Amino acid sequence: MEEKRTLLFSGDVHGLIPTFVHRLADELSYKHADCVVCGDFGIGFDNSWENVYQRISKKLEKNDIHIWVVRGNHDNPEYFENEEKYSKEYVTFMEDYKIYKINGVEILPIGGATSHDRNFRLENNWTWWEGEKIKRVDIKSLPIKVDVIVTHQAPLVFDPVTVKTELDDDSVHEDELAERKYFNDIAFNVKVKHWYYGHYHDHYAGEFKGINYTCLGIVRKEPGNIEADYPEIVEYKNSQDSEEIYQKLFCNKEESINPSNS
Ligand SMILES: [Fe+2]
Question: What is the pTM of this model?
Answer without folding.
Answer: 0.88
